[in-house]
Design brief:
Blueprint: H1 2-13, H2 21-35, E1 48-53, E2 58-62, H3 75-85, H4 88-91, E3 96-102, H5 111-119, E4 125-129, E5 135-140, H6 141-144
Parallel strand pairs: 3-4
Antiparallel strand pairs: 1-2, 1-3, 4-5
Amino acid sequence: MERRHQITNFFERHPELRVEQEKIDTLIAEATKTRGVAYTPYSHYPVGAAVLCQSGKTYSGCNIENVAYTPTAHAEETAIYQAVLAGEAKTERKFIKALVVVHEGDTMPCGICRQVIQEFCDEALIINANPEGEILGIGCLSELLPAAFGPSHLGID
């Protein structure tokens, strides 16, 4: 019940970021499914993500590890890059409406992923859920990455 109260409070503070519960459930299901195909031979820590675009379309991704670690692709990145590959950035640079991450931990996207999210929106709903579909955290990009450097600082909208 406490989590449901947090979600209600969040949407009261940020009504412009409201996404219907049915769509959130769909994003969680997509991220959970994609988590199942994550390539994690080193960390054994699979992560899935799903991004909802302004167009209404969704794209999902998972983490793909590399033995060198640094070039490892994060789930949030691969979901966003799937959207870019599908042409979402061609119609509107600011295409991210919401992003869901599913993993075992109770954390939001890492700093690198927050910066990737910033590249494709000024603000977005961000949800962390566990593999059972329980929402563990809800926030928005401006709270997770305050005073972020983004394309608008270079005069790009």
